[in-house]
Amino acid sequence: ESVVPRIGIHDLALATSHYALPLTALADHHGIDPAKFTVGIGQDVMSVLGPDEDIVTMAAEATSRIIERNGTDGIRTLLFATESGIDQSKSAGVYVHQLVGLPQQVRVVELKQACYSATAALQFAVGLIARDPSQKVLVVASDVARYDLGSSGESTQGAAAAAMLVQADPALLTVENPAGVFTEDVMDFWRPNYRSTALVDGKGSIRAYLNAIGGAWEDYRAQGGASLEDFAAICYHQPFTKMASKAHRHLAVLSGANPTPDEVAAYLADTMRYNRVIGNSYTASVYVALASLLDHHEGDLTGARVGLASYGSGSVAEFFGGVVQPGYREHLRVAEHTAMIDSRVMLDHTAYEVLHKTTLPEDGREYLTARETARPYRFAGLGDHQRRYERTL
Ligand code: HMG
């Protein structure tokens, strides 16, 4: 008789930017009531990358923390999920592989489907480990959300990375079967190759998100998945935290319930604490929500079922459950995550605008970035059309 190994997330580390912008500063600049952002959108602060930071520097920081604690034994694969790629050909994960000192006997690849691809990476990792339970997989999600200055998406920017060590007998969360999935070709949000900021049909994207999450949920149920009341918590993709409330209400109504806004807010509160002060981190967002839940939930979640609801515009959605493992608390990184978020340097609106307008040369000439980040890795500059990175600590 074959024994299905317990596979899931053993360790989860976050990283974000050196700078941040309070949304009150954005509201003041545009003459908007700050409550539109803090209440209507549900965001307080957004992470802003310095000139010497990018998806690689955040990803390298998060991945290095995983390796410092767990070593590299058994790691044969690094799956890098992003939609803010820095190269059309080379995986950003290969830079991370070198920066954190992974052995050469590790395969590296980048996956893309808007905010969804980290969930695909996690499921692919589970499949690799089911084939050989002695292997471990690094799943690294890293993104920067950028919209045009003055656009309605501007308040939903942000940046973060989430690195996960996926393995058999994990310390944090086992990934359960089934998974519910849903795909629909829709133009709700996209970024053509020639643009550094995304194009978005704001209201249409909210409808597309709800429709796709509903579709993934119905598929999950049709495959024999648990019912809504079996979940101690659900971590939704959070382009802004209010979106998670809309999504949860949608699944509740599909399940025949009718929770009040206060009930929804209380149910989701712990999953939103980090995203509220980081902003949209695209592929990382749903795993930032998971870290937020585990780091903040006061009661003991051991044995509790947690839902993960992943959405990527364009669009693909997936819903699956996981079970929190005994002793999970000893494997969290609460102090590290809190210190990282609290130590960000707050920008004023003028400095934020300067950073937003900074562009890199496209002619291959030598270009050194300003030395600003206090994080452990920095993007040092360009030369010969190649990006250069260095460790700062
Ligand atoms: P907007 O149109 O400027 O905002 O931009 P609004 O007028 O709709 O107001 C937002 C909310 O604030 C509303 O609440 C207002 O009532 C409320 P709702 O009706 O939605 O519950 N409000 C106030 N509340 C309190 N006090 C006030 C006040 N004023 C207004 N004074 C929008 C909002 C989200 C459209 C915009 O920020 C945007 O386009 N963002 C980017 C797109 C996005 O995040 N879409 C989310 C779904 S798609 C997704 O998640 C995928 C994504 O992550 C990308 C990927 O997959 O790669 C984006």
From TrEMBL:
Keywords: Transferase. Residues 7-168 form the Hydroxymethylglutaryl-coenzyme A synthase N-terminal domain. One of its GO terms (molecular function) is hydroxymethylglutaryl-CoA synthase activity. The active site is at E83 (proton donor/acceptor), C115 (acyl-thioester intermediate), H237 (proton donor/acceptor). (3S)-3-hydroxy-3-methylglutaryl-CoA binds at D33, Y147, K246, N280. It holds the Pfam family HMG_CoA_synt_N. Residues 180-251, 270-344 form the Hydroxymethylglutaryl-coenzyme A synthase C-terminal domain. GO terms for biological process: acetyl-CoA metabolic process. Belongs to the thiolase-like superfamily. HMG-CoA synthase family. This is Hydroxymethylglutaryl-CoA synthase. It comes from Salana multivorans.
